[in-house]
Amino acid sequence: ISPAMIRNFSIIAHIDHGKSTLADRILEFTGAITEREKQEQFLDNMDLERERGITIKLQSVRLRYQAKDGQVYLLNLIDTPGHVDFSYEVSRSLQACEGALLVVDAAQGVEAQTLANFYLAWENELEILPVINKIDLPNAEPERVRKEIEDIIGWDASEAVLASAKAGIGMEDILEQIVKHIPPPSGKVEDPLRALIFDSLYDPYKGVIIYMRVVDGTLRKGMKIELMATGKVYEVTEIGVLTPHPVAVSELSVGEVGFVVANIKNVKDSRVGDTITDADRPAQEPLPGYRPITPMVFCGIYPVDSSQYEDLREALEKLELNDASLSYEPETSTALGFGFRCGFLGLLHMEIIQERIEREFQIPLITTAPSVIYHVYQTDGSKIEIENPTLMPAQQKIERVEEPYIKATMMAPNEYVGSIMEICQNKRGQYVDMEYMEGNRVNLIYRLPLAEIVYDFFDQLKSSTKGYASFDYELIGYQPSDLVKMDILLNGEVVDAFSFIVHRDRAYHRGKKLAAKLRKLIPRQMFEVPIQAVIGNKVVARETIRAMRKNVLAKCYGGDITRKRKLLEKQKEGKKRMKSVGSVEVPQEAFMAILQMD
Ligand code: GDP
Ligand code: MG
């Protein structure tokens, strides 16, 4: 296949604007899927994904399209995940494309992720083709949305296709634009092989299946390949493309997208963003932009029923096979027993894994509040890294504590600058830069402690900007902070699962609020239960859960708590999970109460 006949593109959109529906319709229009398959949204293949309306795993599909010019083109549609936790994977898959369809809902107009995704595509130098979708809706205002794309994003939308993915309107126009405006791949066939890995998944029969795009050279069956980040060498046993059904091929050359099987046992050996080269004739340099993925957020995960500990281990082993960014190791808590400390890319990733364990493996869980990794420099000159607040040494042994900082890039319409700055100040942010851009947009850059982002930063940002602000972050390193460990005592005993690390200036406030919250969340027991928040030996807050009176039934779980996060709402719906901590029955919500502190 000549690269001149190939077009590689992805679809980007704000959630619910119709990305998956459009992808399906394109598949159908080009004859890639049959009537029966239409029943299901083809590109979203996990139940959980469909329910949450997000795409976690990347996929690609090869399509054939006979254009109006009479030529048959090979189109590769590469799907991208839709959340900031996975922004690295999004950027890798965009890198595998030359163009992107920017789908905007004709009724909703431009929203936060429209901007954020546009920005990512633009950074990857893609040809961006706006598509105004859902024009069949009675409240569709395509012309207003066209103007919004030009005003807010600052992108020419004069040629934007007016489409309805649902009704199948505009599909041919979209495909014609892809063929006309998206440039063909430009790699060199005679160069040593360089292929970009944009996804990999574990298959119980075949081992790891890598999804990749050939940039230079040719990948052949039987070839010895080297994965450049790890230096490991494997023999290619199978190559294929998805149409969307897997079809074996003997080779893939410049610009082609497909999958490779090479007896790789672990997804951790085939990292997203890595370059595949020919082991016998290796490329001089890998493709740019590889970043090893490191977990940013940690929490303890414990089975409600301690006898399910081994089941939990098996569940994590299975999930890890498919998720290179999940990490875990055993830990014990005096309060919760045996469990695991798990590392995640971010909060959404954390919620997804928790939900999958509960749903796919039927293991009810207790999870502790998320934490980041702190660097503790001790007075004896040693340095330790702490991902579990419980392990923080006593204050007199600490010389200083450093915490991870991120560089946050936020883009929003001008009018929200004040609100964004306020949130960033509240989250201990340090102002870095601000830039006014085309289309009445402003780009704000802050340095922020990751620990503050982990809580409800993103929600706050969204609600105070009516959802318009985009948010992207990268880790920039560690900075010293005046941090202290706060312990919570129930009935005079430290409950390790409640310990958290907090900035000294906020410690008093958080301690008081948490104690008050716990008083409401923990049901009355047969006896009085004091709750104390302490730093070292100093009690900063005290509350008392009064003993149950005989005539009062135990239905006194706090009903008036406004839960900020969806997760917590979900847990409320489910049956109450209680864990006996010493002699006190503690519900799951209590362990997450720290998330709702501001
Ligand atoms: P995604 O989150 O961007 O992948 O969005 P989906 O493709 O899942 O679509 C979100 C919702 O919008 C679904 O209920 C779709 O049926 C609906 N939808 C998608 N395209 C259209 C369209 O062109 N017209 C109408 N009326 N609804 C649409
Ligand atoms: Mg979708």
UniProtKB/TrEMBL annotation:
UniProtKB keywords: Cell membrane, GTP-binding, Hydrolase, Membrane, Nucleotide-binding, Protein biosynthesis
SUPFAM superfamilies assigned to the protein according to its UniProt record, in alphabetical order: EF-G C-terminal domain-like, P-loop containing nucleoside triphosphate hydrolases
Record's bilayer topology term: Peripheral membrane protein
EC numbers on record: 3.6.5.n1
InterPro entries for the chain: EF-4, EFG_III/V, EFG_V-like, EFTu-like_2, G_TR_CS, LepA_C_sf, LepA_CTD, LepA_IV
Subcellular localization(s) per the UniProt record: Cell membrane
Listed Pfam families: EFG_C (PF00679), GTP_EFTU (PF00009), GTP_EFTU_D2 (PF03144), LepA_C (PF06421)
Primary residence: membrane
Residues involved in GTP binding: D16, H17, G18, K19, S20, T21, N133, K134, I135, D136
GO biological process: positive regulation of translation
Entry's Gene Ontology molecular function annotations: GTP binding; GTPase activity; ribosome binding; translation elongation factor activity
Domain (Tr-type G): residue spans on this chain: 4-186
PROSITE patterns: G_TR_1, G_TR_2
Keyword NAD attached: no
Reactions the enzyme catalyzes: GTP + H2O = GDP + phosphate + H(+)
Keyword Protein biosynthesis tagged: yes
One of the record's GO cellular component terms: plasma membrane
Stated role: Required for accurate and efficient protein synthesis under certain stress conditions. May act as a fidelity factor of the translation reaction, by catalyzing a one-codon backward translocation of tRNAs on improperly translocated ribosomes. Back-translocation proceeds from a post-translocation (POST) complex to a pre-translocation (PRE) complex, thus giving elongation factor G a second chance to translocate the tRNAs correctly. Binds to ribosomes in a GTP-dependent manner.
NCBIfam families per the UniProt record, alphabetical: lepA, small_GTP
Record-stated family: Belongs to the GTP-binding elongation factor family. LepA subfamily.
Name of this chain's protein: Elongation factor 4
